[in-house]
Amino acid sequence: MNQKPKLWTNDFLMVSLSNFLLFISFYMLMVTLAVYSIEKFDASQSMAGLASSIFVLGAVLVRPIAGKMIGRVDKKKLLLIGLSLFFVFMLLYFPINHLSVLLLVRFIHGFAFGIGTTATGTIAADIIPSSRRGEGMGYFATSTNLAMAVGPFIGLWIIQHFDHKVIFIVTTILSIIAIVATLFLKVTKLEVVSHPISVKSGFRLSDYFEKTTMPIAILVAIFGFVYSSILSFISSYAEVINLVTAASFFFVMYAAFLLISRPFTGKLFDLKGENKVIYPSLILFAVGLFILSQAQHGMSLLIAGAIIGVGFGTFQSSAQTVAINLAPSHRIGLATSTYFVFYDFGIGVGPFILGFVLPLTGFRGMYVLMAVISLVGVLIYYFVHGKKAAVVQKEQQRTNNLQTE
User: Fold this and answer.
1) Cα separation of 59 and 63, whole Å?
2) In this structure, is residue 197 part of a structural domain?
3) What's the rounded Cα separation, in Å, for the pair 60 and 265?
4) Which pLDDT value is given to residue 345?
5) pLDDT tens-digit profile of 137-195?
6) Residue range(s) defining the domain that contains residue 146
7) What is the pLDDT of residue 188?
8) Is residue 201 part of a domain?
9) 26, 150 Cβ separation under 8 angstroms
């Protein structure tokens, strides 16, 4: 009897923990920095929004470089560099006394986050057995999804009950724990590549982006843009519709139902292919957004959170697995960074663009529009990947049937 290769190794747990702590710090800072900027520096709404999102711009700019480097250097060492820089820049938040300095620190802090999360994603892909990649990347992505729920919840709770500097204290402690967890990682070094590539000098786009990832990454950017409408505006929307208490549990429902669904969706991906998972998840995301747009009671808001958690959370991890599966093994780091560059770009530009849309549509109209874009995304997925994936799946089934005859 063939035994399944082991997934839950010590290395897998440690890299997932480091990733979780990085992302929980990211989301805690993301949801609190705008308020902090207004209260501490009397910043305008636009400048407060920039203080929050300029971090993402820093991450976007450094990811292609990190993706290029990770194929050539010790992955654990790169992760430790990213985490150490993240810790150092956390310390710089404490003495800040001017908005322009905060913007600079946030921007460079994003570099450290981009390096760290590119490394964690690549290390996870290397550690997970290829036959269980859909399931394994699903569980790994749960560390991000959980942070997406826990980070805003803790961050908002802290600023309601304590001084803003407590946020910086907590995130500094989390970065120290992430460094300690990484020290216990055992990452096998890639033998210096037997792929005699890139002898050519000069700038080449392929050195910084993985071309096989581009189609699915474009879709990821679109859905990152859509998801940013929730991340940036759910609190304001909840105030307008008088559901602030329920909204504080929105991300908790998101995480809880994503966790419940994860064992099934990951295994379904590995057994039946990505289309069986991605099409339903995109439709669920659209349904959840529509329910959110029509929410009148706390229960409908929480139901929307649960459906969006299963829909968007499942799509996110599935798309990352697709990106990794399509890339050559020596370019998994570039595939990971390319995926996150596009996702971060969607998340980063979303609040800025939607800030112009919101006065025209209102919150409910904006979320209806996001639901429509999600349904259009189903069609885009068909053309950029789904059609080809269906052909590959049929070929695999035919091969399996011939082998069993």
Assistant:
1) 6
2) no
3) 29
4) 87
5) 878 888 887 887 788 788 878 887 888 899 999 999 999 999 999 998 887 654 444 44
6) 8-189
7) 63
8) no
9) no
Report the alpha-carbon distance of residue 235 to residue 49 in Å, rounded.
Answer: 14
User: Is 32 inside a domain boundary?
Assistant: yes
Total residues belonging to the chain: 405
192-229 confidence digits (pLDDT tens): 444 444 445 556 777 778 888 999 999 999 999 999 88
Do 114 and 228 lie in one domain? The reply is no
Residues 379 and 295 in one domain: yes
Q: How far is CA 146 from the centre of its chain?
A: 11
Domain count, the chain: 2
The H-assigned helical ranges of 162-274 are 165-183, 214-240, 244-247, 250-272
- Residue 163 and residue 231 share a domain: no
CATH number at residue 222: 1.20.1250.20
Q: How far, in Å, CA of 222 to CA of 286, rounded?
A: 13
Q: 369-374 contacts: CB < 8 A, separation 24 or more?
A: 370/226, 370/229, 370/289, 370/293, 371/286, 371/287, 371/289, 371/290, 371/293, 372/286, 373/222, 373/225, 373/226, 374/223, 374/226, 374/282, 374/285, 374/286, 374/289
